[in-house]
TrEMBL record:
<dbReference type="GO" id="GO:0051015">
    <property type="term" value="F:actin filament binding"/>
</dbReference>
<keyword id="KW-0175">Coiled coil</keyword>
<feature type="coiled-coil region">
    <location>
        <begin position="140"/>
        <end position="382"/>
    </location>
</feature>
<dbReference type="GO" id="GO:0016460">
    <property type="term" value="C:myosin II complex"/>
</dbReference>
<feature type="domain" description="Myosin tail">
    <location>
        <begin position="92"/>
        <end position="501"/>
    </location>
</feature>
<dbReference type="GO" id="GO:0032982">
    <property type="term" value="C:myosin filament"/>
</dbReference>
<protein>
    <submittedName>
        <fullName>Myosin-16</fullName>
    </submittedName>
</protein>
<feature type="region of interest" description="Disordered">
    <location>
        <begin position="745"/>
        <end position="768"/>
    </location>
</feature>
<feature type="compositionally biased region" description="Basic and acidic residues">
    <location>
        <begin position="889"/>
        <end position="908"/>
    </location>
</feature>
<dbReference type="GO" id="GO:0000146">
    <property type="term" value="F:microfilament motor activity"/>
</dbReference>
<feature type="coiled-coil region">
    <location>
        <begin position="459"/>
        <end position="493"/>
    </location>
</feature>
<dbReference type="Pfam" id="PF01576">
    <property type="entry name" value="Myosin_tail_1"/>
</dbReference>
<feature type="region of interest" description="Disordered">
    <location>
        <begin position="889"/>
        <end position="921"/>
    </location>
</feature>
<dbReference type="GO" id="GO:0005737">
    <property type="term" value="C:cytoplasm"/>
</dbReference>
<feature type="coiled-coil region">
    <location>
        <begin position="563"/>
        <end position="690"/>
    </location>
</feature>
<feature type="domain" description="Myosin tail">
    <location>
        <begin position="523"/>
        <end position="844"/>
    </location>
</feature>
<dbReference type="InterPro" id="IPR002928">
    <property type="entry name" value="Myosin_tail"/>
</dbReference>
């Protein structure tokens, strides 16, 4: 998720940057060009759709910027790379695995919720069953009372019936006696007496019928009551079956709970292991975040440099565009001038052809004039000689022809003069335009050469800057990929830890459910005892009901008394059970309160541990940040010095390259250069030897550091346990970071040595040989072109340049050797101070960890004592309630045994009572 968010931020940032740059470029384009065509096109297309208050230029800018953004994002290489790399990332897979694990966790939570709901339903059903059972017991007791009343009534009716039968029998006997007496006595008195007796007999029969009807009704009521009694017994049997089924389900749930508890124990072990690994990984995460912040800073600096380079590139591109536009304008001007020159040439050719024709006609006319003058002279001579023979008319014709010819000659002269003047003006104009054309061509060539020179210089600068930026970007990309891989690993571990925490929370919920089940077990056990007592009561009641018919009134009274005692005891037992349940609830509340206190104490302990650890970590982090800031400042200073030396070395390298180009023109100083190269190689060997000695000293310091660490490990701090191991791991990580910094310094030193070796190799023998070959080829060419004098002049110049180059190279080598020495000295100082600081920090940290460990051990012991006391209180309370309940159960069993004995004795007495009655009879 973090990578995706960073990608989005980067894409949005780049899109905005590109948008701003394109807007600036578009504004420049609008300043350079007219917007009339775009405005007319836009007004023609969007006048019907745009609002009245909108601006056409703003709308066009937004439209064009959106189109450019779309095209740039569509054909952007980074976007294509992102689309290709995204399926290869493990983040989506981790999200899918996380979703699957979340789904499994959700299913487990649902199952546990279903189990808890089932348990709650079972509790509710048990409560309802217990309520129904108590209600049925009350109804049975009431119905028992009604049955006892009905039985009493039945017995009374039976007694009345027996009495009535005895009276009827007496009346019959008396009637027979009286009939006999009637036979003997008077008939009238006997008949009257007989009528009286018959009337009494009819009354007795009516009473007997009424008693039989009442007896039948009582029998029906008894049957109905028996049916009513049977239905609760059937319901009780069904409820006993459901209770047995629930108990089976409860056993299955207990087995499943045992399995889940085993899994919970395994997960707790795993969680403990993961918490330990999580603590390690959190430290790594903090370290990686610090590294990431540093990388962000470096990336920001690189971005600033890239933006600066892009701004320079934009400026150079704008300059090139302006130069190209100026070049295009000049070319257009040249084309116009060429067209004008072409038209002038055409006109000139026309004028020249016209002037040639006029000259030809003039020559013809002059020849004609000469011929006519000759003819005139001849004619004059002939006329002077022969004036007599010619008449006056012919003379006038000749004069007329001569006048016409003279007039034509004058016209031709005028036209010739005009044509000559025009040709002279055209020739002057052509000369001026040729001069202007030559100037323009010369300016155009100079501008083109200047533009090419600036463009080549800018291209070189841009290529160098882009190469450097590309190298920095590649390094940053590599570091970014490494950091991403580490962050992905840490995210996966954190997710696994979170999953394990979620599982542990689920298993803790299951443990709470187990505790609730234990409470339910106690409740079910209590209810079972109550149900057992109720069943005993019902059995005794049924026995008493079956035996009540054969018992006497005394037995019924004793039964009622025993029933009252049993009900009273039953109520006392129920009250005791309720009191036990209330005590159990109170104990549960006490336990929950103690558990809450334990949880609060554990949370306080964790907070204290976390606060102590956080304080220690903050303190260590601050000290580490302080030391890192100091060392980073020193490293930055060294980096600045190194960059300055690199800049100087680059300037020297540029001068060396210039001198190398000058060195390509010489051949005489190769021996001196080889001698200098030998001296430079000797110096470099000395430097390499010094570097080897420095590395040996570094190795010796590392050995001494290891010995010190071994001494620390074997000393008095070896008994610090796991906390010291963790801190030692942190120290190892700090050492690894310092080793990485040292490796960076060594790498930079090697790069510096590589650059120095490149300079040495550039000034070495193989390039000189290549230069020699090129110089020989150029010398041959120049010997053919310029001659020996030019070569001697160049030789002197190159000698002086080569001497200056040798001096500058010596200075560069000296500066480089001084820098290497200062770097070695600083590295040794850094290592020594770093080791002393690390030893001091570790000593302080070990002391602090000892104090924290002692405090934690004391708090843990106190919490353990409190927890043991709470458990003892809870166990004592539970045992006391169980003992009380067992004592009450035993008392009830003893009372039941005594009641059984009394019942046996009463049965014996009842069996003995009829025998005594018979003996008496």
């Amino acid at each position: 998720m973090r990578d995706e968010r960073l990608d989005k931020i980067m894409t949005m940032l780049q899109a905005r940057l590109w948008g701003t740059l394109m807007r600036i470029e578009f504004k420049k384009m609008l300043e350079r060009r007219s917007v009339t065509q775009a405005r007319s096109l836009y007004t023609a297309l969007y006048t019907s759709h745009r609002p009245k208050h909108s601006n056409i230029e703003e709308d066009f800018l937004i439209f064009s910027s959106n189109v450019k953004k779309f095209l740039q994002l569509r054909f952007w290489g980074w976007w294509k790379l992102y689309t290709k790399v995204k399926p290869l990332l493990h983040v989506a897979r981790q999200e899918e695995e996380l979703k699957a694990k979340k789904e499994e966790l959700r299913v487990a939570h649902e199952k546990t919720a279903e189990m808890v709901e089932k348990i709650k339903e079972m509790d509710e059903k048990l409560v309802t069953l217990s309520k129904d059972k108590s209600d049925s017991a009350l109804t049975l007791a009431a119905e028992g009372d009604t049955i006892a009343d009905a039985e009493e009534r039945c017995n009374q009716l039976k007694k009345q019936e027996m009495n009535m039968e005895e009276q009827i029998q007496d009346f019959r006997e008396r009637l027979e006696e009286e009939e006999e007496e009637e036979e003997e006595g008077a008939a009238t008195a006997l008949s009257a007496h007989k009528r009286k007796l018959e009337a009494e007999l009819m009354d007795l029969k009516r009473n007997l019928e009424d008693l039989e009807s009442t007896l039948a009704k009582s029998e029906k009521e008894k049957q109905g009551l028996d049916f009513k009694v049977r239905t609760p017994t059937v319901d009780l049997n069904q409820r006993d079956d459901t209770i047995a089924r629930f108990q089976k389900e409860r056993k299955a749930m207990e087995e499943l709970q045992q399995k889940t508890l085993d899994d919970l124990q395994a997960e707790e072990d795993r969680v403990n292991h993961l918490t330990k690994s999580n603590s390690k990984l959190t430290t790594q995460v903090h370290e990686l975040e610090d590294n990431w912040e540093q990388e962000k800073k470096i990336r920001g600096e690189v971005e600033k440099a890239r933006r600066k380079a892009e701004a320079d590139l934009k400026m150079t591109i704008d300059n090139l565009n302006e130069m190209e536009r100026a070049k295009i304008d000049l070319e257009e001007v040249v084309k116009k001038r060429d067209l004008e020159i072409y038209h002038v040439d055409v006109k000139l050719e026309d004028e020249e052809s016209l002037s040639s024709t006029l000259h030809r006609k003039l020559r013809e006319h002059q020849a004609r004039i000469e011929e006519l003058e000759e003819e005139l002279e001849a004619e004059r001579a002939i006329r002077a000689k022969c004036a007599f023979w010619f008449n006056r008319a012919s003379w006038f014709k000749v004069e007329k022809q001569r006048a016409d010819l003279a007039r034509d000659l004058e016209d031709l002269g005028d036209r010739l003069e005009e044509a000559g003047g025009a040709t002279v003006a055209l020739i002057e104009r052509n000369k001026k335009r040729e001069v202007e054309l030559l100037n323009l061509r010369r300016e155009l060539g100079e501008a083109a050469l200047q533009g090419e020179a600036t463009a080549s210089a800018l291209r070189k600068k841009h290529s160098v800057a882009m190469v450097e930026l590309a190298e920095q970007v590649e390094d940053l990309q590599k570091d970014k990929q490494v950091m991403k891989a580490e962050i992905d690993d840490l995210d996966s571990t954190v997710e696994s830890v979170q999953k394990s925490k979620a599982r542990s929370a689920a298993f803790i919920g299951l443990a709470d459910a187990r505790h609730d089940l234990d409470l339910l077990k106690v409740k079910v056990e209590m209810q079972r005892l109550i149900s057992k007592l109720n069943s005993d009561v019902t059995t005794w009641r049924t026995k008493h009901e079956t035996d009540a018919i054969h018992k006497t009134e005394q037995l019924e009274e004793t039964k009622e008394a025993a029933w009252r005692k049993l009900t009273a005891r039953l109520r006392e037992a129920e009250e005791a059970a309720e009191a036990a349940q209330a005590r159990a609830a109170s104990l549960e509340k006490v336990k929950q309160g103690l558990q809450g206190e334990v949880d609060d104490l554990t949370i306080d302990l964790e907070k204290a541990d976390a606060a102590a650890a956080a304080a220690a970590l903050d303190k260590k982090q601050r000290a580490f940040d302080k030391t890192m800031a100091e060392w980073s400042q020193k490293c930055e200073e060294l980096q600045v010095e190194l960059e300055n030396s690199q800049k100087e070395c680059r300037s020297y390298m540029t001068e060396v390259y210039k001198l190398k180009t000058a060195c390509e023109e010489t051949q005489d100083h190769l021996e001196t250069v080889e001698k200098d190269n030998k001296s430079l190689t000797d110096e470099i060997r000395d430097l390499v030897e010094q570097l080897g000695e420095g590395r040996k000293s570094v190795h010796e310091l590392q050995k001494a550091k290891k010995k010190l660490e071994e001494c620390l490990c074997t000393g008095e701090h070896c008994d610090l346990g796991f906390g010291f191991k963790v801190e030692q791991g942190k120290v190892v990580r700090v050492q690894l970071e310092l080793a990485q910094v040292k490796a960076d310094m060594d790498r930079r030193n090697h790069e510096k040595e590589g650059e120095f070796e490149i300079t040495r190799s550039d000034s070495g023998k193989p390039p000189v040989e290549s230069l020699q070959a090129s110089l020989e080829a150029e010398a041959k060419g120049r010997a053919e072109a310029k001659g020996r004098a030019e070569a001697l002049r160049l030789k002197k110049k190159i000698d002086s340049d080569l001497n200056e180059m040798e001096i500058q190279l010596d200075h560069a080598n000296k500066n480089n050797s001084e820098l290497v020495k200062t770097l070695k000295r600083l590295q040794q100082q850094i290592k020594a101070t770093r080791m002393a600081e690390e030893l001091r920090q570790e000593q302080d940290h070990c002391d602090h960890l000892e104090k924290i460990k002692k405090n934690n051990e004391l708090t843990i012991k106190e919490l353990q004592l409190k927890e043991e006391e709470a458990e003892e209180i809870v166990l004592k309370a539970g045992k006391s309630t169980i003992q009380k309940l067992e004592a009450k159960a035993k008392e009830l069993e003893n009372e039941r045994d005594s009641e059984q004995k009394r019942h046996v004795e009463t049965n014996k007495r009842m069996q003995a009572y009829p025998s005594t009655g018979r003996d008496r009879a």
